[in-house]
Amino acid sequence: MSLLRSSLKLGLSKRLLVRSTNLNKLPLFQYRSYATEKKTDEYKSILNDDLLSKAGLNEDDIKSDKQSSSEKAYEDEFGQPKKRRNNTKSSIDKKKERYAKLFWFSILGGSIAGCAYLCRDWDPILEKEFYNQDENGFDSPTKIFKRLNKRLNGVTDVFNEPAYNDLLPDPMPEPYRHPLTLVLELDDLLVHSTWDYKTGWKTAKRPGVDYFLGYLSQYYEIVIFSKSSMAFAENTVSKLDPYHAFITYSLFREACRSQDGKIIKDLSLMNRDLGKLIIIDPDQSCYSMQPENAIPIEKWDGSKDDQLIRLIPFLEYLATQPIKDVRPILSSFKSSSNDISTEFQIRESKLREQWELKQQQLNNSNVFTNLLGIPPTRRKMPLDSIREVGQQNYLNMYNYLKENGEKLLKEEQEKTKEMLADQKLTLEKLVTEGMPTAEDIAKQQAAAALQDKQ
Hints:
Blueprint: H1 2-25, H2 28-36, H3 49-54, H4 59-73, H5 91-118, H6 141-156, E1 180-184, E2 191-196, E3 200-205, H7 209-216, E4 220-225, H8 230-240, E5 247-251, E6 257-259, E7 262-264, E8 277-280, E9 294-295, H9 307-320, H10 327-334, H11 340-365, H12 367-372, H13 382-423, H14 427-432, H15 438-453
Function: Essential component of the TIM23 complex, a complex that mediates the translocation of transit peptide-containing proteins across the mitochondrial inner membrane.
Subcellular location: Mitochondrion inner membrane
Keywords: Membrane, Mitochondrion, Mitochondrion inner membrane, Protein transport, Transit peptide, Translocation, Transmembrane, Transmembrane helix, Transport
């Protein structure tokens, strides 16, 4: 053994000596290349591929063993992979997750409790409209579903119904009250709006709309009932009547019903007698609940026409006659193949012929005037007299507004501020007492007028 060791040492020393001598025999540039070679910090294992192969081991087998051992560390006793826990979450993140879970669980619990509450039996006192004794009980799923469905529909109907049951305040007292109420649509009847990329929105007034509103305001309580939202239509209404002299009230989309995707104007909520109310609207679905109160008319597309002017004689006739209910008269005109304005012209011409014939018979029957040679007196037809008075009143009102319109508008604004200051209109008073009625406002204005005279 000692001999073997000594021989091994001797052979190793010879090899080292040979290598050192060979290194000294190298050229200078080659020797310097070893000196200037960059040192790498990478770790190289002594166990290279040759040594491992001689030992009977393979590097791929070692890597696969390491990988399998790492995978086994994350497997349970059934061979299923374990879920690694993320232990890097902060306490704030954990609180957020906890609160989110509580939030969703509370919503789920509230929804279940709300559905259970909506499935309760009908109350004969509090729910008179829906009460049905046959639908009470929990013995049948259909009864429970009917109660739930009706109550859910009652909740959604709040968004499809008008905000108030009385859309207009009480009528004015008798000296200031108009005989009839005229409800007018805004879009495609009085104005027409168009839009393009260059100029944007443009709104045009229908020919004769100023004369139509000004002339009929002496006979009718004019109400603009637009199916557009208040945010878009209010500015247009104020430009149609800048002095607040013609249009009495304005209603918008918020006062309409919504049914099957259609907008409906319920005239029964206007707080007016339906026998004294007329609506003009180009959309038939808007007055589908009270078609007997409507005057049909085509949509205006922005072209020149005289349809509004042609309607004035008929509307003037209705307002100046002692009519208790306008609905039978409107239905008699609708039965004709002509439109209402054309049919009224035909009937008026017949009345005029009868009037002329009657006047001629009266003149011929008066023998005394014929013997004396006195020319017969020609009397005006009542419609002509009414029309002359109406036109004169319109001219007087037009000239008065032209001279004093701005002054009246400023006085109205000042009186409104003073009235609100005197009433001390607060949020609490609005909730408890509501807005002042038209009669209250008229009384206050009359009292203020008396004070001014004194």
